[in-house]
Amino acid sequence: MKPLNIVYSVIFLLSILSSTCYGHRKYKIGLLIPRHGYLSTFGWTTSVGAITMAIETIERDKILPPQSLSVVWRDTKGDPVNGAGMAVKLKYTEDVDVIIGPPFSHVNIPVGYLTAFWNLPHITWVATDPTLADKSVFNTLIRTMGPFNKVGMFLVQFFRIFKWKRAGMYSGTSGFCSFAGGGVRKQFEENNLTVTEDIMFIEETLTDSIMDFHLKKLSRDSRIIMLCTARAQLRKIMLRAYSMGMCKGNFVFLALYSFPKAFYTDPTDKKEESMPLWYGNDTDDETAKQAFQVVFDVTLASINTKQLEGFLELVPQKLTEAPWNSTEAVDLGLSGSRHSPYLFDAVYLYAILLNKSMALNISHRDGKQLLYLAKKTEFSGMSGKVEFDDNGDRDPFYWVWDYTSPTGIPRIIAVGSASPLYGQKAISFLWKPKWKTANGKPPPDIPVCGFDDELCPVDESIKNTIILGSLGALLTVIAASTIMRDLSHENINLFIGSCVDPPNLCVLFAYCSKGSLQDILENDDIKLDWTFKQSLLSDLVNGMAYIHSSSLVSHGRMKSSNCVVDSRWVLKITDYGPSALLHVQFNSRDSEEQGKFKALLWTAPEILRMHEPPSRGTQEGDVYSFGIILHEIAFRHGPFPVERMIPKDIVGRVRNGESVPFRPLRFRDTDVEPSITNLMEMCWAENPNQRPDFNGIKTYLRNHNKDTVGNIMDIILKRMERYAINLEDLVEQRTQALLEEKKKTDRLLYQLLPRSVAERLKVGETVYPEVFESVTIFFSDIVGFTTLSALSTPMQVVDLLNELYTLFDDVIAQHDVYKVETIGDAYMVASGLPHRNGDLHAGQIADMSLNIVSSILTFRIHHMPDRQLQVRIGIHTGPVCAGVVGLTMPRYCVFGDTVNTASRMESSGKGLRIHISESTRDALMKIGGYVVSLRGETPIKGKGTMTTYWMNGKVGFSKRLPDPEKIDEIEEILPMNNKV
């Protein structure tokens, strides 16, 4: 017998003995899952039947006694807020022993916070965000499906075998691809591998022209291309790659993280079951089969395909049984979801961990301990071999498939793990890969001569050709500079010159101090009325009309950031010129992908669709760009003010040419004339021939702005006047805000320190410790606070103390006293400091104490309304020393034996009684009017025996006080209906 089997047999016998000793216990599973939708992945309808099958298997394998497990579930609706709320209900309403789920990483994260706080076992089957691997936070979470960053670790091992160090990434925006892509990028960076291009696309908008553009871009610096997308899009991409000559052997494509063959199928569609990825049942199948000969398909490993298919077919049948009792899946002809095997494994794993915890006498509700046990657990599950890493995450196994057989049927050529153990090989090849290269060897990740032939020597004749070509390019640049230098117009930014010496390649224009139009529009502190906006529009139209009538013909890069404003608030157009001069700027700006798409927000749709757009654009394209800028000026909300849409998605929708063209929103702003919105729509018309030219736009604006009068100097003076008023208002607002913040700061400071001390600190004076010859110190605490806390929740204790000390604070506000501090249920007050008040301090503390005792008699504990709260009060009079202590969090502290004695007066007193020392009694007698009785010789800790007194009242004090003769009969916490 294998050692591992012996261990499991011993654990099983111990678990039987444990169940015999302690009785047959039932364990309740709390399941979190979306009730509706997600049929192909992890929805309730196509998943929960797997739990029934798992429980049956657990009982058949005798891991737990029959009927040990029961299930309750709650609907997360796929929402993190709802998921967290349902987790709380499972915990406190159903008292579950474990939470399984929910699927979706973003729903799992708040649930993981809660289970970590509760230390409750938490197992999930689909939550692949690498964030959840942080066990300093999610310290009870176990995942039966490996996180997506593992595929990156596997690919690093795969690349090392073939000595590849660089690759391009081409992936869709779906959730699993975004996580998988992130995992690949992270692992490549950590292992000194390079992702040369990282292109993401929207699956719904993927057209042939877009794919051609992306693949051409990838081919410029990549020979190994990693693909991550849905099956249909993967086939389309490979067909386009084949048409571009990329499937002849010099490129390798890695299709990442498809599910095993039995998982390819959507449960609602059985037409393509078990078909190869190239199969589309159309006339392109033969071409696609040829294209896929350069594809390696990297998938999760699974169990025997037939066994898995049988499991998926049985899941809907189990949905008809208790506790689900639903025929929905059977009625719709569905099969199990692709993730349901991982749900099966989650329940099966929990049973194994329960078995181990009983044998080892570990609490089955100790989530951290169960996570530790999971690290040492492995079994053959419904999704394949199940092992866990040190984070309690499934350590997945991968299969690598190829399609080089004559029939195109995929075969597994390699198997491996992301993290090989015990010196095992990371990847083992079952078959030698068949390469389509001329020598039958793996293609290099960099061509022999480099991507631009930079690695191959050039003979002299070629050098001469290059020199002549360079001279020709230089002459072209000089000619372009001449054209730009000859341009002269008030609304065209002055061209200064250009630098063509590498690496300092640049074009120089005149500096405009107000910045770009985009900067001005985004600055809310700059107020623009319509007169101001009309002036800017007029400048822009005049400048573009001049460019279109010049030898430049068109601009090609019109956007609000290419319109600058000088010190006289005159708009000037910049970044114009021939492509020979500006190609450096085209290539250097917006180098990051998101920046590239943001720069295209002003580009006309017909230009976005071109494979090789004109270097200087078109006049119609400039008019479209003007329409977008007009929208920016009119509404000041940016070029495309659409929430939750990134520039890449916006550009895709504009390029696609939808039935209703996608354009910026027209806000219902009363300040914007209908004539302006009509002009916008004319300028960004889908058909370029329907757009007006700039001479027509100039006429249109002149006809619709006839009320605009005054010369340019009048307008400038008015602008400057408004600008000055705006600045004055702004300064006044900022000053007022500063004063308000100062008041808040002062209020906070006065709460931390006495006002006189705070004022001295504010002016920079040193506050020295000070001796006070005679002050009176008050201490109080709650009688039986420990018992009261044990009977209350933490929040109830906090609410009680907050209400009680709010009451105390209201009382002390009526007397000349200073609250020194509160620590837990202890409350310390002093009178006679920091302001000396002669001999009145004892009377102020005595009056305050009587008011506090009177108030306590009517104080109610909300969660214990039938209980009487009692406080114990001690007072002593004598000398103290006081001063500010600390720098980081300064406190005004009081020191001296008087403080200690007052504290002892309180601790040796009784509930609802005011215990005073002899010095306090003498001070009160000097004032007169107080009712004091002798308590006698009282042992005081640290002081020996002292003569102490009870203060029972004051002449003329009309509020209710406890009866001194009956107060000794009252226990620490009495019902409110007991008379005092």
List the helices and strands and how they pair.
Elements: H1 3-22, E1 27-33, H2 49-60, E2 69-75, H3 80-92, E3 98-100, H4 105-118, E4 122-124, E5 141-143, H5 149-161, E6 166-172, H6 175-190, E7 194-201, H7 208-219, E8 224-228, H8 231-243, E9 252-258, H9 285-291, E10 295-300, H10 305-319, H11 328-331, H12 340-359, H13 367-375, E11 379-381, E12 384-386, E13 397-402, E14 411-417, E15 427-429, H14 460-485, E16 495-501, E17 504-509, H15 517-522, H16 530-549, E18 563-565, E19 571-573, H17 579-588, H18 593-599, H19 605-608, H20 619-635, H21 647-656, H22 674-683, H23 694-703, H24 712-752, H25 755-762, E20 770-782, H26 785-790, H27 794-812, E21 818-823, E22 826-831, H28 841-857, E23 860-861, E24 864-868, E25 871-885, E26 891-895, H29 897-907, E27 914-917, H30 918-927, E28 930-940, E29 944-954, E30 974-975
Helix pairs in contact: 1-12, 2-10, 2-12, 3-4, 5-6, 7-8, 8-9, 12-13, 16-20, 16-23, 20-22, 27-28
Percentage of residues in DSSP E strands: 15-25%
What assembly state would you assign to the polypeptide chains in this entry? single chain
Q: How many structural domains are formed by the residues?
A: 4
Radius of gyration: 40 Å
Number of helices: 30
List keywords for this structure.
alpha/beta; Rossmann fold; eight-stranded mixed β-sheet; flat; disordered N terminus; transmembrane; signal
A few lines on this structure:
With 980 residues, the chain is of the alpha/beta class. 41% of the residues lie in helices and 18% in strands.
